[in-house]
Amino acid sequence: MIRVLLVDDQPLIRSGFRALLDLEDDIEVVAEAADGAEGLARVKEHLPDVALVDIQMPVMDGIEATRRIAADPDLTGVHVVMLTNYGMDEYVFDALRAGAAGFLVKDILPEDFLHSVRVAARGDALLAPAVTRTLIDRYVSQPLPASTAGKLEQLTDRERETVALAAHGLSNDEIARRLVISPATAKTHINRAMTKLHARDRAQLVVFAYQSGLVTTSDP
């Protein structure tokens, strides 16, 4: 059972998402919260698999709540997915760097929304195509943090290949087929790269891959 927490200051948004999730046999909404501070408390209380968190909220915004969740060693199993509107890309990038597993736009189709919750629960990066290109074009040019610069050299050639493919949105199964290796081996390469780069999840691998120049927006 996938345990989900809804964090949004708009009751109508929360009720709409909850109505969709409650219809699914494999998903359970364990709690709701109206701001980031309350959301952080509910995360600690319920330990959900997925926390759907709005970016802009009163008391504590979604980015700060995400940062605190990512920094807490007791919450490593919580995958934070940011909820955003179009035109909010600057906040999305900050959220990914804070530790979010990805983001969704609020006008997503119901079937895509449900699929995305399941993808996030598996620990895969969730980067909505509608805003990913703008996000990358606008923010990847920012300097790589000093704590991350130079770590690309720590990766083996195969680890670089798997990170590059993950940055293009490929799943472990797709990476395995592309490199003619087993899915388990692909997962091992991804996990080792995450450890070496101190990345919380695949979304942070994507940010690193573009910022470090491992992949570029002109790559096929």
From TrEMBL:
Keywords: DNA-binding, Phosphoprotein, Transcription, Transcription regulation
Keyword Transcription regulation: yes
Post-translational modification 4-aspartylphosphate, affected residues: 54
GO annotation terms (biological process): phosphorelay signal transduction system; regulation of DNA-templated transcription
Ranges of residues in domain HTH luxR-type: 148-213
Keyword Transcription regulation: yes
Domain of life the protein comes from: Bacteria
SUPFAM superfamilies reported in the protein's UniProt record: C-terminal effector domain of the bipartite response regulators, CheY-like
Single GO molecular function: DNA binding
InterPro entries cross-referenced by the UniProt entry: CheY-like_superfamily (IPR011006), NreC/VraR/RcsB-like_REC (IPR058245), Sig_transdc_resp-reg_C-effctor (IPR016032), Sig_transdc_resp-reg_receiver (IPR001789), Tscrpt_reg_LuxR_C (IPR000792), WalR-like (IPR039420)
Record-annotated Response regulatory domain positions: 3-121
PANTHER family according to UniProt: TRANSCRIPTIONAL REGULATORY PROTEIN NARL-RELATED, TWO-COMPONENT RESPONSE REGULATOR
Protein name listed in UniProt: Response regulator transcription factor
Organism per entry: Actinospica acidiphila
